[in-house]
Design brief:
Layout lengths: L2 H14 L1 H15 L1 H22 L5 H19 L2 H28 L27
Length: 136
């Protein structure tokens, strides 16, 4: 198996992983949640209104403050919705797994043993090996 074939096999394995499947289900659920989508649309409209107000020559500070407060309140409401919580949790799990995959690949490309290198960067790791004292 060459490197590209191995990458394709890894891609297929990722698509079989429970974290990927959970993320796909959460995405579908959030996309079909009418209430959530309406609130996201309202949020985007408020952001656009605030942006338009900020670009005016004679800005209305009270209107901008009111819009900003409305945006923050609606954001909090959206983030507290069960469908959005499930989506964010699933996305965080998938991102964590993909971060581990990328870290192992990067460490392997730097000569580390892919079977024994850590699956996560040590605390404080910037990803740049030039300033690193080592992972071991």
């Amino acid at each position: 198996m060459n490197t590209i074939e191995a990458a394709r096999a890894l891609g297929a394995a990722i698509q079989q992983d429970e974290r990927y499947l959970r993320f796909q289900a959460a995405t579908k659920a959030s996309d079909s949640d009418t209430e959530l989508q309406n609130k996201i649309g309202e949020f985007n409209m408020l952001r656009m209104n605030l942006s338009n107000e900020m670009q005016k020559e004679n800005k209305d500070a009270d209107k901008m403050t009111s819009l900003d407060n409305d945006i923050k309140a609606l954001y909090d409401e959206i983030m507290a919705m069960p469908t959005m919580i499930a989506y964010n949790d699933a996305k965080a799990e998938l991102d964590d797994m993909l971060g581990s995959v990328n870290y192992i690949i990067g460490m392997s490309a730097n000569g580390e043993d892919p079977m024994t290198c850590p699956d996560k960067a040590p605390a404080g790791c910037t990803g740049s090996c030039s300033s690193c004292a080592g992972c071991h």
